[in-house]
Amino acid sequence: MIERTIKDNVLSLLGSKKAIIIIGARQVGKSTLLQQILSNRQDVMWLNGDDYDIQELFASMTSTRIRTILGNKKILVLDEAQRIEDVGIRLKLIIDQVPDVQVIATGSSSFELTAKVNEPLTGRKREFLMYPLSFSEMVNNTSFLEESRLIPHRMIYGYYPEVVCDPGNERILLKELSESYLYKDILSLDSINKPDKLVRLLKALALQIGSQVSYNEIGGLIGLDSKTVERYIDILEKSYIIFRLNSFSRNHRNELKISRKIYFWDLGIRNAIIGNLAQIENRTDVGELWENFAISERLKKNSYQTSFAQSYFWRTRQQHEIDYIEEEDGLIKAFEFKWNDRKSNVKCPPSFTSSYPSSTFCVITPKNIEDFLL
Questions:
Q1: Reduced to 3 states, what is the DSSP secondary structure of residue 367?
Q2: CB 2 within 8 A of CB 28
């Protein structure tokens, strides 16, 4: 069984009288984690917000009714809580009126769930973000040597738990993930009125990882205005499919100040969306895959370690560029990503060094990835 990084943190909160909220994309292992933690307990009630009768139950909930339903159960697990109307208010009722019951809720869309629970549960919850499996989790499960050998495989098929745990069936599993679970929450939102355009947008973004993204340009390609493109991208980001990096600037005249790059949290999903699961040696986008892999795994690490690092990329009007910038506690770290370790002698652009003389610079290749991700 693969140990998840947030397991101990969740365990430590059981019995704390605070609701435990676990957010992450569908199929990243939220329910599996809770089953591991609670498998030996007989006092757990499991409910699924996807079920219509559970939605009906919460719609007419009273403190008396929930006590009757829970009986002698001490833990309530509500999966896919974002599907419940006014779920924050409903959970607050349980926390306040049945204080000896530990509430645990999971959700696959921060766009819906966070907005529903933040205000009602202020001071009453602890929230955890869960991703597909990470490089460091797999290293802890096997070894650094074994997982580093599998990096080319992970860059094609990604880190979704079902994909990792069922070798040989990666292609069919990714087809199911990318065609059904991926869109289940997004396409149910009232604000999505052109689902075919959303799918086309996602494919366009998948073909531009590592490149600067223009909302106007993408909108022109798929037939949406730039404001709608931005709104759809925000939804995709809050559904944990993609993430954005903004440009780093300290108001130097030659730096790009309003620009962004978009990456995927899971490369298996990205490759399935564009229908390209060819092996590394047969690809022309290996540099972009390596950049996406390294940055997404770094962000997972920072999130799990509660780092306050801010993440960016850097580029000037003269096309000088650095793939990834981190700023934390006043320190600036710059990183360039090269799949071919023979290119590891790349130098930091002099314009960056002169503007930020106290910064550090490092080239990340498969030969030194442990320094970046562990």
A1: coil
A2: no
Cα separation, 361 vs 347, whole angstroms: 8
Phi, psi of 322, deg, nearest 5: -130, 135
- Would you say 247 and 260 are in contact if contact means Cβ atoms under 8 Å apart? yes
Whole-model pTM: value is: 0.94
The answer to whether residues 247 and 255 touch, using CB atoms and an 8 Å cutoff, is yes
> Tens digit of pLDDT for each residue in 203-229?
999 999 999 999 999 999 999 999 999
Instruction: State the burial class of residue 302 (Cβ atoms within 10 Å of its Cβ: 0-12, 13-18, 19+).
Output: middle
Stated length of the chain: 374
112 vs 9: CA distance, rounded Å = 24
Tokens of residue 305, six digits: 């370690």
Over residues 238-258, the pLDDT tens digits come to 889 999 999 998 866 677 667
Cα-based angle 164, 166, 170 (whole degrees, multiple of 5):
75
Distances (CA, A) of 80 to 16, 49, 242, 288, 367: 22, 5, 20, 33, 40
